[in-house]
Amino acid sequence: MSNESDFDGFKDDLAAVERKLTREFDTGPRAMVVAILVFVVLLSFVLPHTGASKGFDVLVGDATAVNDGISLPSRVFVWLALVFSVGFSTLALITRRWALAWTALAGSAVASALGMLAVWSRQTATGHPGPGIGLIIGWLAVIVLTFHWARVVWSRTALQLAAEENRRRDAAKHQQHGVLGFPGIADGDTDSDTGVTGKKPDQPDQT
User: Fold this and answer.
1) Which is the most buried residue in 21, 81, 140, 189, by most CB within 10 A?
2) Tens of pLDDT, residues 74-122
3) What is the Cα–Cα distance from 177 to 162, expressed in whole angstroms?
4) Distances (CA, A) of 47 to 3, 51, 188
5) How far apart are CA 78 and CA 42, in angstroms?
6) What's 128's DSSP letter?
């Protein structure tokens, strides 16, 4: 029964690894790129968003932002960029939790769409300044950040699927060992532990 116990131990170890894969991810060299993009998004908040208004002015909605006619898409964009592209991205890099990476990806994707609306609203605003360098840089950084989080999430998903496939393959091989739990024995060979000789069921004994 040692083979049975060894397989059970191996199966438990494989299940533990699979559970870890479901919670964590490994960004590899991409982590540095993501960290730089997070810094760029954060830097865009101190650059002109439009006119005299900086990104932080748009966040708090102060008098400067009101005078520049900041619209709703710009306000929603900067908040989504701060919460998801900066906040959740930082947490995901620190904890390597897959759920946080998914949240950062989803929020950054929505922020990318809102960033496009924010740029469009500044370009079509009558009597108000157009989009500033901070808005453009922040929007592009969020788009690139969304792409990299998508690559991280996809790589992790592919790795988990491969681990599940290996686990199913090992379980299938174990089931093929036979009712008695003996490993596969070739015809004419003898198992050193059990003394069982492998032969086909319809092959008569040679005397």
Assistant:
1) 81
2) 999 999 999 999 999 999 999 888 889 999 999 999 999 999 999 999 9
3) 23
4) 66, 10, 79
5) 10
6) S
Q: Where are the domains of the chain?
A: 42-175
Token code pair at residue 189: 């060979």
Q: Residue 2: what pLDDT?
A: 54
Whether residue 126 has pLDDT greater than 50: yes
28: left (phi over 0), alpha (psi -120 to 50) or beta: left
- Average confidence score pLDDT of the chain: 79
Q: What does the block give as tokens for 94?
A: 């620190």
In this predicted model, what pLDDT tens digit does every residue of 137-185 receive, in sequence order? 999 999 999 999 998 888 766 555 665 666 666 666 666 654 445 444 4
Task: Report the alpha-carbon distance of residue 151 to residue 157 in Å, rounded.
Answer: 10
Cβ neighbourhood burial of 16 (10 Å; 0-12, 13-18, 19+): exposed
Q: For tokens 């060894």, what's the residue?
A: 6
Q: How far apart are CA 7 and CA 108, in angstroms?
A: 44
Among residues 54, 17, 10, 40, the alpha carbon closest in space to that of 162 is found at: 17
Q: How many CB atoms lie within 10 A of CB 151?
A: 15
| Tokens found for residue 75 | 């306000």
pLDDT at 193 > cutoff 50: no
Residues whose CB is less than 8 angstroms from the CB of residue 201 and which lie 6 or more positions away in sequence, other chains included? none
Separation of alpha carbons 107 and 186, rounded Å: 57
- Over residues 25-46, the pLDDT tens digits come to 777 788 899 999 999 999 999 9
First-to-last CA distance in the chain? 31
